[in-house]
Every structure is written in structure tokens, then in C-alpha cells.
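Possible regression after last week's pipeline update?

I re-ran a chain I had predicted before the update to compare outputs. Posting the input and the new output here so someone can diff against the archived version. Not blocking, just want to make sure nothing changed silently.
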Amino acid sequence: MPHRRRAHSRRPASPEERVVRVLPTLAGPDKAFDYLVPEELGDQVRVGARVRIALGGRRLPGWVVQDWVRPPPGVALRPLAGARGWGPP
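New output (post-update):
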């Protein structure tokens, strides 16, 4: 049976949508990525929160490093895959 990739919702953020910048914790490029904050995760996400993100076909852990960011125009964003709690103070 062929492997099917799950469709991920990607779309540009509207001005009133909350977007966070996330730094993946696994080895790789030292680059942060922007993600939409789903309404059901809103109270669990802040700077310093540990989250799960979809990146490169995998779900990875990451840290929220900036809140309410303005992504570059035309960039299609994915929602956070989950929230895992807060990191050290």
C-alpha cells in the first residue's frame, strides 16, 4: 500500500491571528520558524513554552522564542501541533 502524506493546513496569517516564532530543539539549522497558534492552545503558549511543530514531514519539539510576530508577507503558515508545558524561568 502506498504511503500517503497527511495534508497540512498552510495559509497566510490574517492581521488578527496570533503567530509565534519557534526554535526547534533538535540539531540542525539554527533558525526559528513562524507558526499559527490554534485557539485551543492559546492559553498554553507564551515565550518559553515547549511546543510541538510540523517541520520537514516530522513532528519536532521546539521553544517559543517570540510571541505575536508579524510573518513576512505571503508566507503560508502551519498551526502548532501541540503544547508541552513551560521551560525553565
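Follow-up from reviewer: compared with the archived run. The beta strands are 19-24, 33-36, 49-55, 58-66, 82-86. Marking as no regression found.
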